[in-house]
Design goal:
The chain is α+β, with helices and mostly antiparallel strands and about 450 residues long. The chain folds into four domains: about 100 residues, Ubiquitin-like (UB roll); about 130 residues, Fumarate Reductase Iron-sulfur Protein, Chain B, domain 2, CATH 1.10.1060.10; about 120 residues, Alpha Horseshoe (Serine Threonine Protein Phosphatase 5, Tetratricopeptide repeat), CATH 1.25.40; about 90 residues, Serine Threonine Protein Phosphatase 5, Tetratricopeptide repeat. It is built from 21 helices and seven strands. A five-stranded mixed sheet has the order 2-1-5-3-4. A two-stranded antiparallel ribbon has the order 6-7. A hairpin with a 4-residue loop joins strand 1 and strand 2. The radius of gyration is 28 Å and the shape is elongated. It starts with a strand and ends in a 6-residue tail after the last helix. The structure holds iron/sulfur cluster (2 copies) and FE2/S2 (inorganic) cluster.
Length: about 450
């Protein structure tokens, strides 16, 4: 059905301009870009507008329709009452070139500041391998059409030109997250996001997610996971303070752990704890040393104290809770504690940890092991795969692979189980969980070495 609509369009350039009123014909099925083209053809031949595909794929026709950042080619006229005035203005965050065309070169400058994909030097072209789950995770971010609507709506730069040098914006947070999730990328993208691209200025209002025409969950899937991974070390005041205090035995314990001298690490940590029982770094080193020696139940006693001492700081508390849940579960897996005895404690610890994370992925490795000790193998596989996609820490990844291997073996997926165990061994050859897992696999007739 044809009707005459009232349009108000911004005309001018970066120096000056005004809204001008037009009455223009609208036909059934048309979008805002059709009306702008009709105006060009019939009333305002010099009206500037940028567009290319008219299919929501090139990201060129971004503008603000009734104040909301939209693609003009994807905004149906049928969404507005016929009597309403439809106002079309250029993107507010960027300088106007003319009428509805803005200069978005800010985004290209920021794009150049993101170092490109950096694979390990020892790999040659053609040797890159990644699992399907890793491909799928970053696929969402690759849907970006660079329309910059998210950049336009972000309040950090929308009315704050002064923030632009320090803040790259949501489009580049998804680019950094994509690289961060790539299993072969060797750069520390989280720190880069924080230090160079202003991740800390984002206060996760989710406005960027709301306007994304590709429905990319920018905040939930890119920004929050990256924030979670930098927050522990950077913003937890106790960890920061702890890092400033000299602790000889504590440091010695950490060093010994790093070089695989677990018994020595245990001694250093115990010495330090005799001097200062509240030293959480030493307590964590002791728990890690015990665990690395296969003393899982003793490690769980230490992580229990860590939880009690963690206070209310989010990062330290989450770290202690997840370490404790994992320690209890490994003790059950190794037969050092019974599931009956610790199940309530495990569930409460996991629930408390869950409350502190915004995405379940942080606890995937723990969930996987929890399902495994309950014999829920398919769930264990699914969580372990998710954990492997996320865990970049060598030790955590090695543990996730052991869990995956055991669950797969139980499901009869022998080849994949053996391959996961081999990969785990290459990451952490002395992991005491490996021994038990190898025995289990052998008893199932699976060759893992
Ligand atoms: S969530 Fe962050 S990046 Fe997205 S619009 Fe809000 S402040 Fe900007
Ligand atoms: S993330 Fe979405 S809104 Fe932002 S530039 Fe890409 S497609 Fe556009
Ligand atoms: S013209 Fe290509 S997205 Fe609108």
């Amino acid at each position: 059905m044809t009707y005459n609509a009232r349009f108000r369009i911004w005309r001018g350039d970066d120096a000056a301009g005004q809204l001008e009123d037009f009455t223009v014909e609208v036909n059934e099925g048309e979008v805002v870009l059709d009306i702008i083209h009709r105006l060009q053809a019939t009333q305002t031949p010099d009206l500037a507008v940028r567009w290319n595909c008219k299919a929501g794929k090139c990201g060129s026709c971004s503008a603000e329709v009734n104040g909301i950042p939209r693609l003009m080619c994807m905004t149906r006229m049928s969404t507005f009452p016929e009597a309403d005035v439809v106002t079309v203005t250029p993107l507010r965050t960027f300088p106007v070139v003319k009428d509805l065309v803005t200069d978005v070169s800010f985004n290209y400058e920021k794009a150049r500041e993101v170092p490109s994909f950096a694979p390990p030097a020892e790999l040659q072209l053609g040797e890159y391998r990644m699992q399907q789950v890793d491909v799928e995770r970053s696929q969402e971010f690759r849907k970006c059409i660079e329309c910059f609507l998210c950049q336009d709506t972000c309040h950090v730069v929308r009315d704050h030109e002064e923030n632009k040098p320090a803040f790259s914006g949501p489009r580049f947070f998804i680019r950094l997250a994509e690289l961060d999730m790539h299993p072969l990328d060797t750069k520390d993208r989280k720190r880069e996001a924080q230090a160079t691209h202003g991740l800390g200025m984002c206060n996760i209002t989710k406005c960027c997610t709301e306007v994304c025409p590709e429905h990319i969950k920018i905040t939930d899937n890119a920004i929050i996971p990256m924030k979670e991974r930098v927050v522990d070390t950077r913003y937890d005041p106790l960890i920061w303070l702890g890092s400033k205090i000299p602790r000889r035995s504590s440091t010695a314990a950490d060093k010994a752990l790093g070089s695989g001298q677990n018994a020595q690490a245990e001694q250093h940590a115990r010495t330090r704890l005799r001097e200062k029982p509240s030293d959480r770094t030493a307590r964590r080193a002791l728990a890690d040393a015990l665990r690395a020696q296969g003393q899982f139940a003793a490690a769980a006693e230490q992580t229990r104290v860590l939880v009690e001492q963690a206070g209310r700081g989010r990062g330290a508390r989450l770290d202690a809770l997840s370490a404790h849940a994992f320690a209890l579960l490994t003790a059950v897996e190794a037969g050092q504690l019974t599931l009956d005895r610790v199940e309530d404690e495990v569930s409460t610890t996991v629930q408390d940890a869950q409350r502190l994370v915004s995405t379940g992925t942080v606890l995937s490795g723990t969930h996987a092991l929890h399902h495994l000790v309950h014999g829920r193998l398919a769930e264990a596989v699914s969580h372990a795969r998710e954990a492997i996609a996320w865990d970049r820490d060598r030790v955590a990844r090695a543990d996730d692979l052991v869990t995956l291997s055991e669950a797969l073996a139980g499901l009869g997926e022998d080849a994949e189980a053996a391959s996961a165990l081999r990969e785990s061994r290459s990451l952490w050859p002395t992991n005491p969980r490996l021994q038990a897992a190898s025995v289990n696999l052998r008893s199932l007739g699976v060759a893992s070495s």
